[in-house]
Amino acid sequence: MAAYDSLLDHIQALTIIDTHEHLPFESERPQDTDVLAEWLTHYFSCDLVSSGLSEGDLAVVRDSRKDLKARWKIAQPYWHAAESTGYGRSLAIAARDLYGIDEINSRSIEKLDHLFRKVRAGGNNYRVVLEKSKIALAICDPAPAPYHETKAPFVFTMRMDNFICPNHYGQIRAAAAEVGMEAHTLSDWMEVTRRHFESKINGRTKIVCLKCGLAYHRSLRFDKVAFADAERAFNELFQDGNLPDGRQPIKAAKALSDYMMHFACRVADDNKLVCQVHTGIQEGNGNFIYDADPALLTNLFLEYRNARFDIFHMGYPYVSELGTLAKNFRNVFIDMCWGHIICPEAARRALAEWLDAVPANKISAFGGDYCFVDGVYGHQFLARRNVAAALAQKVADGSFSLMRAKELAAWLFVDNPKRLFGLDRFLKDNEAGK
């Protein structure tokens, strides 16, 4: 316990790097909202549905135009069933520390909503909560389109998905126009893709990496396919039914997305870029979890050795598989973003396991992965305690000293992501208020 307390004090003093968020700019946040509508945007709403809440009732509970107490009455039994999950605990922590509400229930929900609305009306909520969370810099997904600079403590990731899986001629034409091209052939599309990547991740913008989220839509096994097969699939996007804007899009064939994923990785390899990849559990209710096994990416790790793959969400539930990959490949890194709220106990166990198997410079401990800032606070609170607990366990079993544990805590929360994503100059700019 003494080791845990000492480590927690040390970790709470750290100003940390946040590897993954979906936060909109504060000016773009929805205004017609309340605490239930915003807090059930994602994550905990999935646990409510899992516990029995119907999709129709969830839509009612999220509707801020309807009476708050009536919506709470619908949600309350499912909220009570799920409040001990990581998602539920994150919100309870936010309610307590940000709004002074010790328990979310029928007696407190109106006061919580009043305080939530008051804070929102005051503006500048992001910077206040991120400073309270001691987050120096967050990598937001995706970069604004069209790209523009911001004084918020954000850098960005660039989504690869629409380049790998284009679904409509209009999308192809618009992306090509942005880089001064027309795209009529697969070779044209490859050049469009290269120009986008190389023009935006070049040290002159705040875009620091690429991101693939295709595990929501297809298997992460990207086979090596012939150009002719991919070109045939690309040409289908130019069928008559797809040409007028607004028509139902024709879905890209697997051959095209396989080929373009390899091409995207080749560009990343040529430029030594970082590719963040969603693996493991998909947000929402119902999907094919086996499509998101990080081991399916092995052929990419083998071929594109200069690209660095930041593998998301602990790979949960494939945590041992991800540890094996990070141990086996120089270019594979573990990212615990989202992980501490998916399952806090699994995150603690996974970190303890990885510290035995994986070099400690390959793990990033925290990414909030929220669409609303209150959840980020709750998540970092859990993450700091999880890491302290895992490190204290290693001290207790004699794996390493308390001094070494404190060193590793700084690596996990600060030094590893700072080095992987090249964040030094952005941190300096942020400190200078730029």
Primary descriptors:
434 residues, alpha/beta, 8 strands, 9% strand
List the topology elements.
Layout (H helix, E strand, L loop, with lengths): L1 H11 L3 E6 L13 H5 L4 H7 L4 H8 L5 H15 L3 H14 L9 H14 L2 H8 L2 E6 L13 E6 L1 H4 L4 H10 L7 H15 L6 E6 L14 H10 L17 H18 L2 E4 L20 H6 L4 E4 L7 H10 L3 E4 L3 H4 L1 H14 L5 E2 L8 H24 L5 H20 L2 H8 L3
Parallel strand pairs: 1-2, 2-3, 3-4, 4-5, 5-6, 6-7, 7-8
Structural description of this entry:
Helix 1 (2-12) packs parallel to helix 19 and helix 6 (86-99) packs across helix 18. The protein has two domains: 33-124; 129-431, Alpha-Beta Barrel (TIM Barrel), CATH 3.20.20. The longest helix is centred in the C-terminal third of the chain and has 24 residues, at 373-396. It is globular. The chain has helices at residues 2-12, 35-39, 44-50, 55-62, 68-82, 86-99, 109-122, 125-132, 161-164, 169-178, 186-200, 227-236, 254-271, 298-303, 319-328, 339-342, 344-357, 373-396, 402-421, 424-431; strands spanning 16-21, 135-140, 154-159, 207-212, 274-277, 308-311, 332-335, 363-364. The chain contains 20 helices and eight strands. The protein has an eight-stranded parallel β-sheet, with helices on both faces. By secondary structure, it is an alpha/beta fold.
